[in-house]
Design goal:
InterPro entries: Coq4. The protein is mostly helical. The chain folds into two domains: 1-38; 39-211, no CATH class. The protein contains twelve helices and no strands. Helix 1 runs antiparallel to helix 2 (28-38). The longest helix has 17 residues, at 151-167. The protein is globular and about 50 Å long. The mean pLDDT is 93.
Length: 215
C-alpha cells in the first residue's frame, strides 16, 4: 500500500528540510523537527515490522533494553582492544557526552527512537565510520540499509548531498565513496538493531565486527 502525504504535511516536511540544510551540522533540534514530520506512525510501524523479521529485533521490541548509565572513565580502563575502551576513546576524543539515562520505553515507537539515538556512537565505533562529513554519510547509508524504510535517514543523506553540492563540492568523491561503502556494508552486515551493547563492553571489537560480518 502506497502511503500518501497531504499538502500540509508536504509543506511542513519541505520547510523543516530547508531549515535543516541551512543549519550547522549536528543541529539535533532541526533533525528532531524533520523527524517529527517525516516518520509518522504508519512509517514507524513499517520499520518496526521490518526489524521484527529477525528474532533479535522481535525480542528487542518485547524486552526494550536500554543502555543505562555509562561511565566513560571506567570504560576507558578496559583493555584497549575492547568495545568499551574503543567507545570511551571515541566519545572522549570527540568531546561527546554519554546519552542520558532513559526511562523504560512504554511503547515500540518510543523504544525505536530511543534505542537508535542512544546507540548512535556505538554504531560509529562498530562500523568504523568517522565523525567527519564523509563518515557521517557512510553511517547514514549503513542505517538506510539496516532500517529499510526510515525516511529520516534518507532525508539526512539527501541533506548532506545538497550541502556538499552547495558548499563543499570538493568533498564529492569522499562523500560518494562513503555513501556506496556504507550502503554495501549495511546490506552485508548482520542486524545491529536490538543488540544489548552494555553486555559487550569487555568483548574485543574485532571479534564483534567479525561476528556481525563487518569488515
Amino acid at each position: 500500500m502506497i502511503e500518501t502525504i497531504n499538502q500540509s504535511q508536504e509543506t511542513a516536511i519541505l520547510e523543516s528540510f530547508i531549515e535543516l540544510v541551512k543549519s550547522p551540522y549536528g543541529d539535533f533540534a532541526a533533525i528532531g523537527k524533520l523527524s517529527h514530520f517525516l516518520n509518522n506512525p504508519a512509517t514507524l510501524q513499517k520499520i518496526v515490522d521490518f526489524l521484527s523479521l529477525t528474532s533479535q529485533g522481535k525480542q528487542a521490541f518485547v524486552d526494550r533494553p536500554l543502555l543505562g548509565k555509562i561511565d566513560l572513565q571506567q570504560l576507558h580502563q578496559l583493555p584497549k582492544h575492547t568495545l568499551g575502551y574503543m567507545y570511551a576513546e571515541h566519545m572522549i576524543r570527540n568531546g561527546l557526552t554519554p546519552p542520558p539515562v532513559n526511562e523504560i520505553a512504554n511503547d515500540q515507537f518510543t523504544f525505536l527512537g530511543t534505542h537508535i539515538t542512544e546507540t548512535h556512537d556505538i554504531w560509529h565505533v562498530v562500523t568504523g565510520c568517522n565523525t567527519d562529513k564523509p563518515g557521517e554519510v557512510k553511517l547514514e547509508a549503513f542505517y538506510i540499509a539496516q532500517l529499510a524504510s526510515d525516511r529520516l535517514f534518507i532525508a539526512l543523506l539527501a541533506k548532506n548531498l545538497l550541502k556538499t553540492a552547495m558548499y563543499e563540492v570538493e568533498l564529492c568523491e569522499q562523500i560518494m565513496d562513503g555513501l556506496s561503502q556504507g550502503w554495501i556494508m549495511g546490506k552485508r552486515a548482520k542486524p545491529l538493531f536490538g543488540i544489548e551493547w552494555n553486555r559487550l563492553w569487555e568483548t574485543p571489537l574485532k571479534d564483534l565486527q567479525t561476528s556481525l560480518n563487518i569488515s
